[in-house]
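Q: For a teaching session next week I want to show students how multiple molecules come together into a single three-dimensional assembly. I've collected the sequence lines for a complex. Could you give me the predicted C-alpha cells for the whole thing so I can convert them for display?
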Amino acid sequence: MAGNSFGQLFRITTFGESHGAAIGVIIDGCPPDVSIDLEFIQAELDKRKPGQSRITTQRKESDTAQILSGVFEGKSTGTPLAMIIPNEDQRSKDYDHNKDIFRPSHADYTYEAKYGIRDYRGGGRSSARETAARVAAGAVAKLFLKQKGIEIFGHVSSAGTIDAPDLNATDLTKLLEIRESNIVRCADPAAAGEMIELIDSIRKQGDTIGGKISCIIRNCPAGLGEPVFDKLHADLGKAMLSINAVHGFEYGSGFTGSEMKGSEHNDIFKPADAGNPVTTLTNFSGGIQGGISNGMDITFRVAFKPVATIMQSQQTIDKEGNAAEIKGKGRHDPCVVPRAVAIVEAMAALVIADHLLRQEAYK
Amino acid sequence: MAGNSFGQLFRITTFGESHGAAIGVIIDGCPPDVSIDLEFIQAELDKRKPGQSRITTQRKESDTAQILSGVFEGKSTGTPLAMIIPNEDQRSKDYDHNKDIFRPSHADYTYEAKYGIRDYRGGGRSSARETAARVAAGAVAKLFLKQKGIEIFGHVSSAGTIDAPDLNATDLTKLLEIRESNIVRCADPAAAGEMIELIDSIRKQGDTIGGKISCIIRNCPAGLGEPVFDKLHADLGKAMLSINAVHGFEYGSGFTGSEMKGSEHNDIFKPADAGNPVTTLTNFSGGIQGGISNGMDITFRVAFKPVATIMQSQQTIDKEGNAAEIKGKGRHDPCVVPRAVAIVEAMAALVIADHLLRQEAYK
Amino acid sequence: MAGNSFGQLFRITTFGESHGAAIGVIIDGCPPDVSIDLEFIQAELDKRKPGQSRITTQRKESDTAQILSGVFEGKSTGTPLAMIIPNEDQRSKDYDHNKDIFRPSHADYTYEAKYGIRDYRGGGRSSARETAARVAAGAVAKLFLKQKGIEIFGHVSSAGTIDAPDLNATDLTKLLEIRESNIVRCADPAAAGEMIELIDSIRKQGDTIGGKISCIIRNCPAGLGEPVFDKLHADLGKAMLSINAVHGFEYGSGFTGSEMKGSEHNDIFKPADAGNPVTTLTNFSGGIQGGISNGMDITFRVAFKPVATIMQSQQTIDKEGNAAEIKGKGRHDPCVVPRAVAIVEAMAALVIADHLLRQEAYK
Amino acid sequence: MAGNSFGQLFRITTFGESHGAAIGVIIDGCPPDVSIDLEFIQAELDKRKPGQSRITTQRKESDTAQILSGVFEGKSTGTPLAMIIPNEDQRSKDYDHNKDIFRPSHADYTYEAKYGIRDYRGGGRSSARETAARVAAGAVAKLFLKQKGIEIFGHVSSAGTIDAPDLNATDLTKLLEIRESNIVRCADPAAAGEMIELIDSIRKQGDTIGGKISCIIRNCPAGLGEPVFDKLHADLGKAMLSINAVHGFEYGSGFTGSEMKGSEHNDIFKPADAGNPVTTLTNFSGGIQGGISNGMDITFRVAFKPVATIMQSQQTIDKEGNAAEIKGKGRHDPCVVPRAVAIVEAMAALVIADHLLRQEAYK
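A: Of course. Below is the structure for the complete assembly, covering every listed component.
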C-alpha cells in the first residue's frame, strides 16, 4: 500500500530514483500471447525522453528499455513482464546544493516530513524520471489494446494562455502525424507555432509555463468501468492526477458542463440503424455514463502547473528553517506538456487495459 | 475488484439499490476506541437526505442509520463497523416506464451493456441513493479525524453560472454556520440568494442545472500521501470523481494554474518562527507537494453536471433500438450541489483517514 | 487491510459479533445472472447452525439469512449482494464472567493486546458465529459453480483418534446422502458410529475433542490458480487456516508425501483417448501442479484443534495478571467438525469461484 | 491479481524466469531508515543457491543480488527497493527435450492449460529459481525485524522418514551454529548424519525424497495478525504453501492437536511476575490465539514433496496426448529441504514484517 502500484488486473509496479542505477517497472497481469514489439516501446519512450528539442530540457538520456522477463519468442507469456531503463546522465553534483535546502513548490519539504530521510539527488523518487517507467508499461498496454482495435490520442491543447481550437477528430492517424510534425505536440499547426514561440520566450526569461493536454480514446467497447468507486472516469482521473505537476482533470463537458442546463447537456440517443452500435447526437458525457463506457469517444483534459524549477533567484528556507536563497541549476523543461503527451497516453492505456480485463472476468 | 470498496486501511464497502430492502456500508479498519456518536452520523445524513427544502427533490426518506456491529459501549472496537439505512419511500411504479427504455445521459444503457441485466427501479445501483452509505461512513471518518484536530469544510461555490466570491476562510466554524443558514449551502449569503433564485427558476422550467463545490481540509499534518500513484490529490480526485454527476476535479491552482508562470506559481516558504510549523506565503499547491501534504490548507474544487432527469419531453431509444419519447416522472433535484456538499466532505474525510493510517504504519 | 475481506474478484467482506444486532456479508463480484436460490442458502446455513443434534451446542438460533441487495427477480445483478443474519439467542449474561478474565486458548488475551478494547460477550468478533456469514456467501459461490458443473464435497474423516477409512469417491451424490444420514457428518457409516460414541463420551466428561475434515473438489477445469504466491492450494490453505480452530492443512499427498520418493510420488499422465481430458494414474498432486489445477479431483484435509471451552475448572489469569479460576458456562460444542463441514465447503467454493473469475479475465 | 505480489504493507512483487536475463523483486513498503546490509542479503542467498554441497544440485550460479533503488547512503528511503539477480548458468539446451513433452508432476501441463504458451526452458516461471527473489526480499525483512529484536529460525526436522527429535530451543543462536555446521541444515547433529546418508543413497538411485522444515519465530510482540481472514497463521500458511513443492502446513499442535482433548490442549496462562510479559505453561497454540500472536514462540512445520525430476525413465505424454518416455537430464536436487530452509525463513520474515506494519497503522 506504499503506492507504487497501479491497476488491478493489468497491474504495474514501478521503482527507481533519478540518480540510482536504474528505474523500471513490473507488469503483472499482461495477458499471454500479446506480441511485444520492443521497437514500439522504444518509440514511445523517445517521445518522453529529455533532450528532444530546444523547448525541452537539454539533459541527454537515451532511456533505453530492456526486457528482463515475461516474453518468450516475441510473445508475452502471462508471467510478470519486467523492464529496466538504466540511468545515464547523472550529474549528481548538480544537486549538491539541494541537500540542505527545500526548493519552493518541489517535494523536498514533504518527503523530509514523510520519511525523515531523502535522496536529494535530482528529486529522487519525486523526479518526473519515474514516468519513463509508466511510458514503457503503457506501451505494452497499447500493444494489447491495439489487438482490440482501441486507439488513444493525446495532444497539447494549451500552453499557458494559448489554446488550440477544438479539433476535427475524424481521423486520429492524421492528427497524430500533424502532432508529431511539431516540437510542442499540438495537432493544430497554427496554435503549435504560437505555443512554441511562447515557450521559447518563457525559456529565455529563465521562467516556466503550464499547459493542458486533451485526450481521446476511440473504439473502447461499451461496458467498461465499475459502477461505484471504480468508475471509468474516476480511474482515469486518478491516473492523470498521479502524473507529476497535474493540478486538474475533467472529462466530457467537464467544468463547463457545470454551467449548463440538463436540457442542453443530455446526450440524445440515435435510433440504431443496421448493424451499427448505439450512438448519441452529442457527447457531453465524454463516452462514459454512470461510470461505464457507452462506446462513444472517451474524452478528457488534463491541466499541468508550470515547472517549479526556474532559472531565477527565489527566497526559500533550509532544513533548519532559516531563510535561504536558491537559483535553479541543471537543465530543466520550460514547459512539461510536450513530453507529457506520451505519459498521458500511457496512463490512459493502462486504465483501459485494466478495465478490459476486469470486464472480461465477469462476462 | 468489482469496485464497491474504497480506501486501503480505512476501507469501506457499500451495497444497496434504490429500491431494495436497504443500503449500507461496512467500514473495515476503523481504529479501536473512537467515540461513535450516532447523533452526529445522523446529522450528517440529514444534510444529504431528500426532501429538505424546496430546491431539492420532494421525495421523503428519513435515511435513518442503524449500527449492526463494531461498536461496544459507545466506542469502536477495531472490528468491522456495519451500518444499514432501510429504504422507505419506494414508489417503484414511478419507474415502470423505465423498464424497456434508456433515459438520456443516465446509466440505463451502460448497465445493460455491462451486465445484460438491470434493476431498473429508481436507477438501481446507479442511483445517487448509494451516496448515503458514503455519508454515514464519512461521518465515522470525521469522528476519527476530529480526535486529531482535522477539520473539513465544503460549500457550494457555484450554481450554474453564479459564482460565490473567494471566501475569507480564517474561521471555518463561522463559515459553516453561514452555510447551514441557507438552503443552497453557500457560505456567501449574497451569492446564496442569487443561487436559490436561479435554481427556483430552473425548477419551474422543469429543467436542471449543474454547479461546483469547493472544499478545505485544515490541520492535516504534513507527510500524508504516497509519492507515486497514490498521491494525496490523486486519491482525493478519484474520491470526488466517483460521486454521481461529477465531471471535473482540480486542487490548488487547478486549471487556472496551467496558465501561470513558475515565478508566479511557486509557493515561497516562510522562515520558521518559534514553535510554528513551516508555512508558505501563497498556496497555489493547495496544501500538497509531490503528492504529499505540506501542512497548509488542502483546497480543491469539484464540478457537477446538471441532473439528467428533466421534466420535459426528450427523444430517446428503447431496448430494441427504436426511437421513443420520454418525460421525467417522479420527484427529482433541480440541482444536486446543495445535497452533495455532505458527500464531498464525507469522501474527503475517508481519504484523509485512510492516508493517516497509511502514514502511521511506516512511522 | 484489516482482514475482514477474502478473495479478489469474487470477494466477500464479513461483519458482526456474537452478541450484536446481526452478522452479515457483502459479496462484491458475484457475476450477473446467477440464479439465487434462498432455500439452498438456508439449507447450507442449517448444516452449520447450532442446536442441530445432541453432539453440537444446545444453543438455538435459526440463523435465517435475509438478502438486502444485488438480486432482482431471482437473479444476481452483478452489484454487491448483501446478506444479514440477525442474532437471536443472546444470553449476554452467560458471558459476564468473561469481562475481566482471559479464558485459556481463547482470543481474549490477544484481542486485548491488539485493540486495548474488547467486546467480551460470546467472544465478540472471535466467535465462530462469524463463520455463518461465510457459509451464506459460500452458498452463493456454490450456486455459481453449479452452473459450471463443479462439485464440492467434504466430510468428517477423523474425530479425535478415530479415522474413517479412505472413501471410494466415485459418486459424490451418494456419499453426501450417507454423510447427511448421521449427525457427525462422516460418509463412512461404521466410522460415523464410533465417532458419535466418542463425542458423546467426551461431552459427558465436560471435555472436548478435535478432528479432521477431508474435502474433494470435482470437475474443476485445468488452469485455475496463479503461479507464484496465489497458487490454488496456497489460497485453499489460507481459506481453511482462517477458519476458527484450524491448526493444519495438507493437500494431495500432504505430510505423508514428504516421506515418499519421487519415483513413487510422480503422477504419470495417461495418454488421451477420444475426447477425454488428460488424467493421471495416481493423484498425489491432489489435482494441483505448480499451483494450477490439472483437471483431476482436488483433494485436501483440514485439522481442527479441540474446542477451548470445557466444562471443567481451569487455572487462568485476570486482566491484572492475577491468578484466577474459570469454568466454562453456556452451551458449547464438544467437537466442532460436524458443524464445520459446511464451513470448509463454503470456503472451498469461495476460492474456486474467485480463481475461476481470475482465469476468465486473462483468457 | 496475477499473483506475483505478496503482503499488504511490506509488499513484494517478484519477476523472472529460470532462463531469462534476470530474476528480481520490488519491495514496496520497506520503512525508511532501515540499515540495508548487502553482505547479509548475499549470505542469505548463499544458503539457497545451487551447488553448495554434494546433496544439492550441481548447477553453479553465484546468485549475486544488485540493489537498483530505494537505498541511499546505506539506508532504506521508504521508496521501492528493487533488486535483481542475473541468471548465469543457463544451459538452455538441457531443456530442449521439454519443449513438446509434459514432465510428470511438473507444471508443464498446467501452464500450457492456463496460458496456451509456455517458456519451457528450465521450467520458466515455475522454476524454484523464483524463490531466490523471495530470499533476497526476506533478508531485507529480517534486517527490519532485527531492529525490533525478532528472531526467525528454521531447520530440517525430517528427511524422508528420518525425523530429528524435538529441539531444546532455548538458544536459537547456538542451534543456528549447529545447523550451519552440516550440509543438510538440521540442528540435531545425529539426525543430520542419518539424513545426509539417506539423501546420498537416494541420489545414487537417481531418485529423490521429500522432507519437513520446522520453524520458530521468537520475540514477536503480542497483537499481530488480523482476526478473521488474515489470521497470522493463515498468512504464514499461505506463505509456506506458495513455496514450490510444499504440500502441507501446520502450526502449534498441528495435525496431532486434532487428536487431543481440550483439557490437555488448552494453554494455561501463568500469573504475571514483576515486569515479565504474560506466558503460558504449554504452547500448543503455537504462539497464536484467535489468529493473533500472544507473545510466545510462534512454531510451525512445513512438508515438502519429493522433487519431481528423477534420473529414471518414466512414462508420460507429449503435447498431442501421445504416450512418450522421459528421463531427467540436467542437474537437480535429490532433496530440496536443505536449500529450502532459507526460503521458509524468508517467507516467515515477510509475513511478520507485513503484520507488524499493519498493526502499527491502527495503534
